[in-house]
């Protein structure tokens, strides 16, 4: 690829010299880009072709992946997610909230506003399971459960990219309710998200381990789940609980499993899934007698500019109990020799016992800003953190409602992580219900937070450029879009953005009774003209098909709309624009499919209807 | 006579260089010579450290053909300032933890150091730092540039960096739609 050249402003006489003069190499531009917040990187792809190529280039990916967190722009998020529910043990909630753990190591805990991310499924047939939140390549994944036990069609998995707010629900492979997601990745070339799912068909009793089936799903593909073969020697494997979460590094997924045929000695081996070739293979694990693959955790630790695989293990029959940290120094060469014991961490002074470590809900290694690497163990009694640098365990205090600790790493390199058709959601009947970000905690400055509100993800980047995060949340449920009424819309003081209004509101007839209801009854037929249609006016290229249909509808209603437009004052429109954007982000990250996002979320609750635009 | 004199001078310089081993002489692409303390060079630049260890340092000026005199002057300036700014006792520990330590905000003198540079000089310095494997300098300069870029629109970036927009209108529209989430503010 041609090295992108920063053109120079040079005196005329020097122009000739400047043409062949020094230009920034890819490496240098990548270094610079990688220091920018994700949103800037995405934006600067519009600068020129060379930058576009570079921003999507693996070199930026690498730099970003290796980027060390800086004060204001942290890519590495140890996240606490908790649930908006009084009883977290119910394990199914309407909304899950995630906050960056700003704990002790964040340099400025008190001045940094919390940046809660929240997602909720606003459908009536699905609830979010809080049991197993996982994160791969910047995408969070959890199970969704049917609200009615007999409704197996609502079994599935929710994928959410908090960076773009893209969101998808995929159906679980049959038989529903069996197995679990063991891995996920964005394809290194296409960016399409994939999921790996494992089942061992029923009866996971102690000795009768059933054959493990691993299935893969290209999210958004109609073909659904297909089986990938495990190495022949590995017909069964125990991947359950927190350990089943694979870690991704260098385009591969890794699990620590029991070596096939090792009998009672239970030697460990690393199972690798090559995401490009879609093949499994083995890699050596640390050769440490007593290392129990069923309790040890495989993680990725940052190491300088690189990342390393690391195994955290309690060694059997060894006293005093200590946590050994093994790291793989050289990923590409002889693994057996490259594993190195890096730390032995004593558990004195903690409430961690062997049993607690084994049962721990999360074991994570993170790199903080000031305090270097820390090992986090979330067990039944709280979170213990060990600072590798100062060699001391401390307790992390968190709110009581904290449900889990989750390592989440933003993946800015691939803003186009794609869920493809799964995102459109409305195609799939029960598979999805639009997307709403339910953030009850984020009160607007005017204190107007009584209404369940949704909003743009007030994610980390909003605060990075221009001071504190702008308050962009506080909108009524999206049904307000379908039945617009001033009573619904928040005060115009929300944001002072003016002069950008690429939208025209073309409202159908007003439906006040709907407008004042907190949410649309599921039976309401929003596919009828009560819905407002938001129409992009500027010469943007409308997505094919969708836009044509929408345009026809718009044209058909234009007459009626002109009369009812009195509500379409500027701030209405701006709000609508934001909402639309919010929806755009929520339902699709695909190019040009923004229109679909305008469909009210409750539309799919109507049998046989798929939103005001019909099947698109 | 002339020849002898030249030889004598060369010998003399060599003697001086041997006696004065704690500096290295670097030669820019346009032939200017700069001296920098060996210790600082080895500590701050992985490339120079390798050259010093490998004995490929030329006493009469190690050729750095990729680096112009202006940039090299800045590099040397940076090395000297860096050597002065940290007490030597702290050096060892800081250089060990350097690779693993997270990027620290530029210190005051580093900020001043990059602030006085013009855009061109800054870019040259990035290249030089990249070429010489000077991680900290690269950090500091890239940080400065990224600070300059934050919050700017693509148009402003093109203006500042004098980049030609080689997109067609349609292409630009497409990319903006694709990245709609990044363009709230436009």
TrEMBL record, chain A:
| Pfam families in UniProt | F-box, FBA_1
Q: Which domain of life is it from?
A: Eukaryota
Q: Which SMART domains match?
A: FBOX
Residue ranges constituting the F-box domain according to the UniProt record? 24-64
Q: Which NCBIfam families match?
A: F_box_assoc_1
Q: Please identify the protein, giving its name as recorded.
A: F-box domain-containing protein
In its UniProt entry, the species of origin is given as Digitaria exilis
**Source organism phylogeny:** Eukaryota, Viridiplantae, Streptophyta, Embryophyta, Tracheophyta
From TrEMBL, chain B:
KW Phosphoprotein (keyword) present: no
**Superkingdom as given in the UniProt entry:** Eukaryota
UniProt-annotated stretches for the region Disordered: 1-21
**SUPFAM superfamilies on file:** POZ domain (SSF54695), Skp1 dimerisation domain-like (SSF81382)
The pathway it acts in is: Protein modification; protein ubiquitination
Instruction: Enumerate the SMART domains for this protein.
Output: Skp1
Q: Which UniProt keywords apply?
A: Ubl conjugation pathway
In this protein, which residues make up the domain named SKP1 component POZ?
Answer: 23-84
Which GO BP annotation is one of this protein's?
jasmonic acid mediated signaling pathway
Keyword rRNA-binding included in the entry's annotation? no
Domain SKP1 component dimerisation: start-end pairs:
136-182
| Assembly mode | Part of a SCF (SKP1-cullin-F-box) protein ligase complex.
What family is this protein classified in? Belongs to the SKP1 family.
- Tell me, in a sentence or two, what this protein's role is: Involved in ubiquitination and subsequent proteasomal degradation of target proteins. Together with CUL1, RBX1 and a F-box protein, it forms a SCF E3 ubiquitin ligase complex. The functional specificity of this complex depends on the type of F-box protein. In the SCF complex, it serves as an adapter that links the F-box protein to CUL1.
UniProt-recorded name of the protein: SKP1-like protein
